[in-house]
TrEMBL record:
Domain of life per record: Bacteria
Family annotation (InterPro entries): LEA_2, WHy-dom
Protein's UniProt name: Water stress and hypersensitive response domain-containing protein
Domain Water stress and hypersensitive response: 3-123
Any single biological process term in GO: response to desiccation
SUPFAM superfamilies registered for this protein in UniProt: LEA14-like
Transmembrane intervals: none
Length: 133
């Protein structure tokens, strides 16, 4: 199974939390469909837990096909603050390492675990220039 983030949309949060709807594209390279009845995800940034989420969604990923699975995730303000402090400590530049791991819950012992990781760069800060000529 190959799982990638297909999109992220904001959700209404409570108090000191940020909520997002994460859309996962799940690709099944096998000759049999994968049925699931629950999803759990954990998003790590720079090796630390950033967001977690669960969903009781059910469905299937067709054989040699793909499907979009949505999971609401929560990020606490304390985790966001910790990540911001860490970025400031590192000078705010360089690649940001991320990891997404989770599982599609199947029947009995047929849960499928997935993990994907990579890096992204923050946009460079804008410079103050006088373009008036």
């Amino acid at each position: 199974m190959q799982v990638t983030v297909a999109g992220i949309e904001p959700l209404q949060g409570q108090g000191l939390e940020l909520r997002m709807l994460v859309k996962l594209r799940v690709q099944n390279p096998n000759d049999t469909p994968v049925n699931y009845n629950g999803v759990a995800v954990e998003m790590n940034v720079q090796g630390k837990t950033f967001a977690t989420g669960v969903s009781d969604a059910d469905g299937n990923v067709p054989r040699f096909g793909d499907a979009i699975v949505t999971v609401p995730v929560t990020v606490s303000a304390f985790r966001m603050a910790g990540q911001a402090v860490e970025m400031i400590r590192r000078g705010g530049s360089g690649p940001i390492a991320y990891e997404l791991k989770g599982k599609l819950n199947g029947s009995t012992f047929n849960s499928i675990r997935f993990r994907t990781q990579g890096e992204f760069d923050l946009p460079a800060p804008a410079t103050d220039r006088d373009d008036r000529g």
